[in-house]
Specification:
With 426 residues, this protein is an alpha/beta fold. It folds into three domains: 122 residues, Rossmann fold; 190 residues, Dihydrodipicolinate Reductase, domain 2; 74 residues, no CATH class. The protein has 15 helices and 15 strands. The strands form two sheets. A nine-stranded mixed beta sheet has the order 14-13-12-11-7-10-9-8-15. Helix 1 crosses helix 14, helix 5 packs antiparallel against helix 15 and helix 9 packs across helix 15. It is globular and about 70 Å long. It starts with a strand and ends with a strand. The model has no long low-confidence stretch (mean pLDDT 95). Bound molecules: nicotinamide-adenine-dinucleotide. Nicotinamide-adenine-dinucleotide (NAD) binds next to helix 1.
């Protein structure tokens, strides 16, 4: 069968992850063209996916001028660019895999939705968690009626210290003003989507949210802290500070593709001397975490009431010691409890013999590493996208634009509620 001809728009980390899955791991895709203003990224896709030099563009207008050259676009641009990099390609009839968050407001969301509809395009959002075998199994059990009616869903995401720093305190999602996304939208539009997807028999009616920026603020910097760790922060302060750059970026850099992006080089090519020099001078990751100018919330709780009376609550926090995502679903006939990071969950049923409960474990532990990022979600998403493009029936996880809208609207309403300290109706 013919491979899917994909065009990469924004050839950064995410787009290349999906291309890697589609081209090299699944063998269902080829990359026929690429757009990115960064020559380093274009060189990477030429080398890695064999894109011809004449099909690499620094401005999307040059590619659009050629007309439709592939079957679909993988849009991996940053949050703020999703609208302007999606509409023209949808207007040319490209199907699209679009990174989340789709956009940050209802008007633009509806514009994308309407444009895809008007041009008959299949548009899938990268809600990768729906495809992780862990969450997919939970969805299947709900559809099989194992839980009865859903009464309440409780989820949380605890963002670990390193990830918090590299993405949300010093990184490119630290400021809603700059990046366009709130903390909830950037980090947990997945989780809010899960609440709506798992409870798909109904719709959200009202939301209330508490939270704010209260802990990672200049006033809470350690006493005597400087402005850049390696420049003016005393050793005795750095020794006690969990955000000190030495251990975080130089000794144990867990997500190395983020902090060295600003050097303009592939992270594998940046020398230790260049890293240190960048942290001392221009690298935003070298700044004191408490004084890095972030404006997103550092903790937030979202409480949702659905039309059928069921409820849900999601909590998200920065700076956690042990990172993780947990879930507890209470149903009228059963309950589920698990943590995706641990790789297993329990299904519990009432036991009439003992008046307590029976418990069954569903273990995905041994599949966590094998199946790609996001607990297997990345590969599952790309596989589903390729199959849908070939005309297959959508899977239970299908993240079409139609059923990704509700979760986004709920995020916008939750943020409005947090900022205005009042419940918001949907
Ligand atoms: N699904 C997930 O779980 C998940 C995880 C991380 C990030 N994301 C989302 O994925 C998106 C991309 O994140 P990333 O970390 O890969 O970003 P990135 O910075 O690595 O990649 C973005 C690329 O877009 C390029 N670019 C800039 N302007 C452009 C333009 N006008 N046209 C085309 N390309 C342009 C940049 O040069 C860069 O190479 C973001 O929206 C982010 O929120 C999703």
């Amino acid at each position: 069968m013919a491979t899917l001809k994909a065009v990469l728009v924004g050839c950064g980390d995410r787009a290349c992850v999906y291309a890697e899955e589609g081209v090299h791991n699944l063998g269902l895709m080829e990359v026929v063209a690429a757009v990115d203003p960064d020559e380093v990224r274009l060189a990477y896709v030429r080398e890695h996916f064999g894109v011809k030099k004449e099909m690499c563009f620094r401005d999307q207008r040059e590619l659009l001028a050629l007309g439709k050259v592939g079957d679909c676009v993988i849009n991996g641009t940053m949050d703020k660019l999703h609208l302007e990099t999606s509409l023209p390609f949808l207007e040319q009839g490209y199907d699209m895999l679009l990174e989340k968050p789709i956009v940050n407001n209802k008007a633009d969301l509806m514009k994308i939705y309407e444009t895809a509809k008007a041009h008959g395009c299949k548009l899938m959002t990268c809600h990768v968690l729906r495809y992780a075998p862990f969450y997919r199994k939970i969805k299947e059990l709900i559809l099989e009626g194992e839980l009865g009616e859903i009464v309440n869903i409780r989820t949380d995401e605890r963002v670990g210290v390193f990830h918090s720093s590299v993405s949300y305190i010093r990184g490119k999602w630290k400021s809603e003003k700059e990046c366009g996304s709130s903390f909830l939208l950037a980090k947990c539009c997945h989780d809010i989507d899960l609440l709506c997807w798992l409870n798909a028999g109904t719709e959200p009616k009202q939301v209330f949210s508490y939270g704010g920026r209260d802990f990672i603020v200049p006033e809470k910097a350690p006493k005597g802290a400087g402005t850049r760790c390696l420049v003016d922060c005393p050793q005795e302060v750095r020794r006690e500070c969990i955000y000190d750059v030495q251990s975080m970026y130089l000794d144990n850099c867990l997500l190395p593709w983020y902090p060295w992006q600003c050097t303009g080089k592939n992270y594998t090519d940046v020398t230790m001397e260049e890293k240190i020099e960048s942290l001392k001078t221009y690298n935003p990751h070298g700044v004191c975490a408490y004084k890095a100018g972030g404006d997103i919330a550092d903790h937030q709780n979202v409480l949702v009431k659905f039309k059928n009376g069921s409820t849900a609550v999601h909590s998200l926090m920065l700076g956690c010691m042990k990172a993780g995502r947990s879930i507890f679903i209470t149903g009228t006939r059963g309950e589920i409890e698990g943590d995706v990071e641990n790789g297993y969950f329990y299904l519990r049923k009432y036991d009439k013999k003992t008046s307590t409960y029976t418990e069954r474990q569903f273990d995905f532990h041994d599949r966590q590493g094998e199946t790609g990022g996001h607990f297997g979600g990345d590969r599952g998403l790309v596989l589903d996208f390729c199959e849908i493009m070939r005309g297959a029936e959508p899977s239970v996880s299908y993240t079409s634009i139609e059923n990704s809208v509700t979760g986004h609207l709920l995020v916008y309403a939750a943020d409005e509620s947090m900022k205005e300290a009042r419940p918001v109706d949907l």
